[in-house]
Amino acid sequence: MGAPAATLAIWDGLVERAFDVASELAGSSGLEPLVGAVSRLQEALAPLAGGDAGIASAPVILLAAAVTIFFGVIGETFFKKTGIPDVAFLMMLGVAFGPVLGIIQPDVVTQIVPYFAAIALIIIMFDGGLNLDLKHMIRTAHFAILLALIGFVASVFIVTVMAHYALGWDWLGSILLGSIVGGSSSVIVFGLVRNLRISESAKNMLSFESAITDILSTIIAFIMFGAILVDSLSVTQLGQSVGHNLAVGISLGLVVGVPWLFVTAKLANARHGYMLTLGVLFFLYFLANALGESGALTALVFGILLGNKDRIARLFRFKMPPIERDDSMHNQLTFLVRAFFFVFVGLLASFGDWRLAAFGIAAAVAIYIARIVLSRIILLNSFSRLDRKVTSVMIPRGLAAAVLATLPLTYGLPNAEAYPQVAFFVILSTVIITTFGLVGAKKIPPPDPKEGGFVTPEEERPPASGPAAEEAGFPARSV
To answer: Which residues sit opposite 55 in a β-bridge?
Structure first.
């Protein structure tokens, strides 16, 4: 039998098995029929999964990619129309492709984590930098730094104490788990704030905060890996490592980014100008890693410089071509990376121990409660009500947590298998909390788009009616 005929026969068997499963479910109740149904679907897909290769055949992988792109576009459109993020949905799509249907096996996912994580990290951090406005970022930097530092420390403390007393882990392993899930995901936050009707000040504050916590998570986690291997933790080493990473990341971004502004001025009409910039970004990632930095901060600084090149050009007094704010190629690339990243996180899901699942959900709720308290303390009334609400629910964990949680397996650390399970449920729970929180925030009128997030209580009230109300983004009301 030829390959096409064999594939067609497999699909016929799969469809027939699906009808059998549906019939059994229709006449049964409880979880046992569902578990059996999933098992039979996995058996039906096994011939397509390539046997012991751990990954499906090329046509099936391309089909999964097509489904991901299709639902990614639908989800993005749905988010723009309703304000409901598509993150959790795409993660569950990854769960379906991996643990449920077995199209991609966990060992394969673990092998490709370093490669996919590197690409996703630098593309998303670079994109986040491009969309950070220096003026608003500097204006709200103190809020972002306070939220990032205090929020990260609070999250690490909460998870550390819970892991030590609820799971019975030692203190070093508990601190490692806390650092892995301690920061909000810049990948998710950058994508969410771009489509929210909050002020530019709040957008930049939340984006800058998430970038800082992503970097902190990565630095502290790697320090903890070394501490567990040698069974000791030095505060001096901790401070030196953080300082080294900050110095390398900022220096590389500036040293390469500023000269590249002059190059982009000369390549304004070059056919492959964007691809050259992408090549420089990849080269920067290599240099950062060679010098002991993760590459995240370097990509962020490089993106900030290019995203604010009109301001920097005026500072250095050289001419720049007209600034293109909507680069189609970059937008398409960023969309693909984001969509596949969320599905990728779902592929990392593991459901071996219900205690770890319960722990992950409880940790997410505790982090959310702490976030509400911190937001009310740190953010002043100068922020609009909508900005404060969005800030209080913006706790999604993502790329850093997903990638870092797989590394204990590589290092052979105690409880290594538990880290990915806990991280997945923390990620999923925090994303769901953020999703429902943003849905609730839709009921709050947006601030004045011209003035940004810093508004007085009097300015926060919408105009009664007329052109001023429509211009400010409020529906006109009859008096």
So the answer is: 104
